[in-house]
Amino acid sequence: MKKITLIVNQNENMMHDNVQTMTSLEIAELTGKQHKNLMQAIRKMEPAWEKVRGLKFQLSSRVYNLPNGGTKVVPYYSLTKTECLYIATKFNDEARAKLVLRWQELELQELARRQQLCLPEPKENLRLGSRCSRVNSSQIGADTHCLRRSV
Predict the structure, then answer these.
(1) What is the domain partition of the chain in residue ranges?
(2) pLDDT beneath 70: ranges in the chain
(3) pTM over 0.85
């Protein structure tokens, strides 16, 4: 068996135009399928998808270093969640379940990332909390508005 090393970044799940995607390489690894067989199945399903959706799947490639000093270009598809679920209709129940759970994991990671981007720094949280704690009961309604504006 040949040893192949990847030249480019191997981040399997990516964002394209703010839409999360998964590569056919990751899907093959996740489901235990050979990538070449998965690519063949995707190519067979693509005409129907194109007819219904009006778009082809996004095809990309990666360059790998070979032990003999050469390189190998490996094509792969970068698929949205909807496209993955369409492809998964051909999978057995276990492989389909793995794919659905992986998408759930990716969505939770993205949600956590977005929430982290929206949170103020811990010192800012303390400042806002201190500012709000000094308000008397007649000002509570006005102060919550102030908090929303500050954040």
Answers:
(1) 5-118, 120-151
(2) 1-18, 119-151
(3) no
